Amino acid sequence: MLVFKRMTAVAVTICALLAGLVTVAVGNEAGQPTDWQLGFQQSVTPVMDEIVRFHTILLWVIIAIAGFVLALLLIIAVRFNARSNPTPSRTTHNTLLEILWTVVPVIILVAIAIPSFRLLFYQLNIPAADLTVKATGKQWYWTYTYPDNGKIEFDSLMVRDTTKLKPGQPRLLGVDNEMVVPVNKTVRVLTTGAEVIHAFAVPSFGIKIDAIPGRVNETWFKATREGIYYGQCSELCGKEHAFMPIAVRVVSEQAFNAWVDDAKKKWARDDSAPTDVAAADQSTAR
């Protein structure tokens, strides 16, 4: 009776998890975490599509392995307990069995490695970009630069006052100035750090790359759906690590061009202006 109750509890748990997965698959299209979420956020890039597909394959492989091992355990528990098998066998070696439990795992790992390397190459080979954006991690916010669009540069800080959040902006993820990109365009993202190591990560895009001081890393994405997609710094970078979110607004090409025209007026960087160090030297000289 106790075994039956335990099996029932396990079955109910599995059904609840599957129901949660279905709910997430159907309803999570917000580009941000949702209540009771299981699994990935909604994919909106080809790279994330491949990540989800590879994850699904691995999930079924793991289920098959776990089911096989569970079946072996049950067979052993039933056939070879002291009551069913009072005189145990003295067998210590089985050549065929030892070959199988060595060769089969190797075959499984090789089969997993092939799509794994294919996905890795797909992520790391940067295609010809339609737009380049540089993301600089600072303590503790992001600075975005658009070198292809008139040297636009602006800071993106989390909206700390919840009363100032715009409709639809989530708490702890909403920012004052979002990174804006056009839909269905290949965007190359250059990342670096100003003082310490950060990491630029947006789950719906399937990207996560370190932003290291003195070094420029690069990744890419191609968003296929308009909307706002959120991420966060994914490297322990200091006391306010949890408060430097990433917000990417994906818009139509026409809306992006209009945003660029407006951004040039607000945030065009003046390279002729003296840097802080130069200004300090001039002040000292006086």
The value of Rg in angstroms is: 26 Å
Query: What is the 3D form?
Result: elongated
Low-pLDDT regions: 19-28, 275-286
Q: Give the SSE order as H and E letters.
A: HHHEEEEEEEEEEHH
Strand order within the widest beta sheet = 3-2-1-5-8
- By secondary-structure content and strand pairing, the structural class works out as alpha+beta
Helical coverage, percent range: 40-55%
Measured between the Cα atoms of the first and last residue, the distance is 90 Å
- Average pLDDT confidence is 86
Q: So how many helices?
A: 5
Q: Can you give a write-up of this model?
A:
There is one protein chain. This protein has 286 residues and is of the alpha+beta class. Helix content is 40%, strand content 21%. The chain has 5 helices and 10 strands. A 5-stranded mixed sheet has the order 3-2-1-5-8. α2 packs antiparallel against α3 (95-124). The longest helix has 34 residues, at 46-79. It starts with a helix and ends with a helix. Mean pLDDT is 86; it is low at 19-28 and 275-286.
Protein topology:
Elements (H helix, E strand, L loop, with lengths): L1 H26 L18 H34 L15 H30 L6 E8 L2 E6 L5 E5 L22 E4 L4 E7 L4 E5 L4 E5 L5 E5 L5 E7 L11 E7 L1 H15 L8 H10 L1
Parallel strand pairs: 1-5, 4-10
Antiparallel strand pairs: 1-2, 2-3, 5-8, 6-7, 6-9, 9-10
Helix pairs in contact: 2-3
